[in-house]
Amino acid sequence: MSSSRLQPAQFPPSIILPPLSTPHNLTIIILHGRGFNAQKFHGPLLSSPSPTTSTSFRKCLSNARFVFPTAPLGRATKYRRSRIHQWYEGTGDWEPEARGDMRPSVEYIHGILREEVEKLGGDSRKVVLMGFSQGGAMTLISSLLWEGPELGAVVIMSGFMPLTESLMDLLEDKSDDGDDMLEKMSGDDLFERDLEQDERTPLQQAICELRQEAELDPMPPATSFPFLKTPVFMGHGERDHDVELCHGQQAAELLVRMGALVQFNTYPDLAHWYSPEMLRDIVKFLDKHLGL
After folding, report:
1. Cα 97 from chain centroid?
2. What angle do CA 251, 154, 64 make, to 5 degrees?
3. pLDDT tens digits, residue range 187-225?
4. DSSP string over the chain
5. N or C: which end of the chain has fewer CB within 10 A?
């Protein structure tokens, strides 16, 4: 179905590329940025060469199945209500536009995760969720709200996290302060709630807040969080003027405060995109944690 015929919140078919080699031991689901689609995004990414060899990103992960979903068409307030592919309306805390319409994308991505875990015989540790820019934000949202078994890894390229400030406020209310979160990496209540009388932990409060932002149905506070067992790679260009480096750093700090294992890498000459060096580091990260 062509994009011009898509209805709001309707997801086009994903682009799926089978492994180049057997056995199939890894599936990587990759979310494009706002204004892109899977058709435009997947080719340049997979063919990007290593900085030291001519081997492409796809060939470096030859046993991986790649799944590229496409976001639904929506009218973007930031772009004068133009219809573009976006995972939700809005961006991050630094922009005035209101956020919304997260729920369809979160539920859709969770459905893909369940399908891909099943295809790998239930081994969720062989499934990686990855995203660029707004796709990176949706990757973080979806992984934080994922209630299935822990994933193998989460990878963010030039990404950010909505609600960073309010979620950090909830986490810091009962947390130790004074630590520099980035040094821990390898590589008053906003809504006037009485947290002292709230029996939920700060982490439970933060995840419940994120569920509300995504307009998901209310649930009892979770007692376990799969994302705490899932390593996260975040790569960001120091010359990124679309999603400035500080927004990536703040997202990483939030994840560390939550208790996640985060590797945050920066790239001095990189703008709002990925680079062969970043893709090389992603391959190394996946090999380190998944034993490719």
Report:
1. 20
2. 155
3. 545 444 454 446 899 999 999 999 999 999 888 888 899
4. --GGGPPTTPPPPPEEE--SSSS--EEEEEEPPTT--HHHHHHHHHHPBPSSSS-BHHHHTTTEEEEE--PPEEEEGGGTTEEEE-SSB---TTS-SPPB--HHHHHHHHHHHHHHHHHTTT-GGGEEEEEETHHHHHHHHHHHT--SSPPSEEEEES---TTHHHHHHHHHTSS-----GGGGSB---TT---GGG--S-HHHHHHHHHHHHTTPPP-PPPS--GGGGS-EEEEEETT-SSS-HHHHHHHHHHHHHHT--EEEEEETT--SS--HHHHHHHHHHHHHHH--
5. N
CA dist., res. 157 & res. 164, Å (int) = 17
Task: Report d(CA 140, CA 155) in Å as an integer.
Answer: 9
Q: What is the spatial distance between Cα 125 and Cα 141, in angstroms, rounded to a whole number?
A: 19
Residue among 170, 193, 146 at smallest CA distance from 254: 170
State both tokens at 35: 């204004």
Decide the pairing of beta strands 73-76 and 127-132.
Answer: unpaired
Model confidence pLDDT, tens digit, residues 25-54: 999 999 999 999 999 999 999 999 988 778
- β partners of residue 128: 28, 153
Cα(257)–Cα(125) distance, rounded to whole angstroms?
Answer: 23
d(CA 292, CA 285): 10
Q: Are 26 and 119 in contact (CB under 8 A)?
A: no
Confidence (pTM): 0.88
